[in-house]
Design goal:
This protein has 455 residues and is α/β, with parallel strands linked by helices. The chain contains twelve helices and 21 strands. A hairpin with a 2-residue loop joins strand 11 and strand 12. The structure holds flavin-adenine dinucleotide (FAD).
């Protein structure tokens, strides 16, 4: 029988979710095309997780150089070469772009370069440098991600979004970061580590909304110790040019001068110009595409995953959602996404790692919970002279003894929490944590040696 459509699956957006869905569908024999208007790999590879983590490593060396002195190392004052870091990062990201291209090609996915938009429920128009082309597909998957939102204030065009931070030229000696989410905190830490004077301005009561309250307060204090001038309950009224400087007028009446102003003030679903109306796809608040548990939209042939659905905006979440779609369209349809135990990290200095519920969420959900917490100076810092401290915390549901929340502020928190996430996914109880031997001497052993309830 002739196929009524040229493709079984047409994916719009070759980011984390789109690439995974396209590859996996093609590997299962589907005829797949993927359209990408910018670089392959999307936000995560080009202007998100990967370059950010590389810069975070770069920034950590500053602390390592300082810490080394207490261990007997004498070295000349280190100097950072921002141009070299930028060039090395660009080379590595270019390599990753090529890896993505090869993965897609090897799977038999047709890569289309250009801007895609809906013509109808099965039809997509692709704008390329050579003109427009039309394609039809049995199913269309929207994986167009998100885009930074900047506040509507006078002079906002003088600020930049996170997309521009990796290629700033020159390095900003004075950086003002506006925002209190994880992206704001990470860039504040990175540029502080690389030597900038950093002011972080956040209009809320405390940074990192959505994280455990104790973690939020503890992390804020640690960021301040690292030299970030964190100003809470402070908003920016306007930006203006003042010679070579950008001057920020704050709602506290104060003024600040900076070389670069980063607006890390949220991200919105990338839906503009997508023609969702042409297909009849329903959208929710902020334009987010509304989907069911299988990521099907209000139009049966159209699916959506990742940041464009404005659920949990994380790469592993987009990847897992892609697998649900592929399984539902070209497999047995057995997969379900579980948003309950999603581990995440914030790559501030020190790192934050978290999995499961905050203490507040657990109290609301279960009523009776027991909290174990430990705050201490890591062994390394007994000689390094650093005043950095760690916080580790377990939230246990009394009725079942299950560990329902695990939180950490301290070195390598992301690496440590990833392992514990497996235990939590398996339903580990506090008794299981207690029966587990520690690895001594490590920071992580604290999670299995906390015996006294804090409350
Ligand atoms: P994206 O990866 O954003 O990909 C969407 C793609 O679609 C883009 O390439 C875009 O060019 C393309 N596109 C859009 N519209 C069209 C169109 N009409 N036609 C053709 N192409 C189109 N997550 C983590 O898990 N860990 C982290 O440490 C982390 N750090 C981050 C740091 C920063 C600074 C940012 C901004 C994000 C970070 N994230 C992190 C989030 C993560 O990057 C996203 O959750 C993830 O990339 C979402 O994947 P996606 O497939 O939904 O979309």
């Amino acid at each position: 029988m002739a196929h009524p459509h040229a493709f079984d699956l047409f994916v719009i957006g070759a980011g984390s979710g789109g690439v995974r869905a396209a590859r996996m569908a093609a590997q299962r024999g589907a005829r797949v095309a993927i359209a990408e208007a910018a670089a392959l790999g999307g936000t995560c590879v080009n202007v998100g997780c990967i370059p950010k983590k590389l810069y975070s490593y770069a920034a950590h060396y500053a602390q390592d150089f300082r810490d080394a002195a207490g261990f007997g190392w004498d070295a000349p004052e280190p100097r950072h070469d921002w141009e070299r870091l930028r060039a090395n990062r660009a080379e590595e990201i270019g390599r990753l772009n090529r890896v993505y291209q090869r993965l897609l090609e090897d799977a038999g996915v047709r890569i289309l370069r250009g801007w895609a938009s809906f013509v109808d429920a099965h039809g997509v128009r692709l704008e390329t440098t050579h003109g427009a082309e039309h394609f039809s597909a049995e199913h269309v998957l929207v994986a167009t991600g998100g885009t930074p939102v900047t506040p509507d204030i006078p002079g906002a065009q003088l600020g930049v979004s996170s997309d521009s931070m990796f290629d700033l030229d020159p390095f900003p000696a004075r950086l003002a970061v506006v925002g209190g989410g994880y992206i704001a905190c990470e860039f504040a830490s990175i540029f502080r580590g690389l030597g900038a004077q950093v002011h972080q301005l956040y209009r809320g009561e405390q940074i990192l909304r959505g994280f455990d309250e104790e973690v939020r307060h503890f992390a804020a204090a640690e960021l301040a110790k690292h030299g970030i001038d964190l100003r809470l309950r402070t908003d920016v009224r306007s930006l203006a040019r003042a010679g070579a400087d950008i001057e920020l007028a704050l709602d506290t009446g104060q003024r600040l001068q900076a070389d670069t102003v980063l607006f890390a003030t949220g991200r919105a679903p990338n839906v503009n110009g997508l023609g969702l109306e042409a297909a009849g796809v329903r959208q929710g608040p902020g334009g987010a595409i509304v989907v069911d548990a299988q990521y099907r939209t209000s139009v049966p042939s159209v699916y959506a995953i990742g940041d464009v659905t404005a659920r949990l905006q994380l790469t592993p979440v987009a990847l897992a959602e892609a697998m649900v779609v592929v399984d539902s369209l070209f497999g047995e349809g057995r997969r379900q996404m579980d948003y309950d135990i999603v581990p995440t990290a914030v790559f501030t200095h020190p790192n934050i790692g978290t999995v499961g519920m905050t203490e507040q969420q657990a109290r609301e959900r279960f009523g009776r919970v027991t909290v174990y917490r430990s705050e201490f100076k890591a062994l390394k810092h007994t000689l390094s002279g650093s005043t950095e401290r760690c916080l580790m915390k377990l939230v246990v549901q009394d009725a079942t003894d299950r560990v329902v929340g695990l939180h950490m502020v301290g070195p390598d928190a992301g690496e440590i929490v990833q392992g514990f996430a497996v235990a939590m996914k398996a339903g580990a109880t506090k008794a299981v944590f207690d029966a587990t031997l520690g690895i001594h001497p490590t920071i992580a052993e604290e999670f299995v040696t906390m015996r006294e309830a804090a409350r």
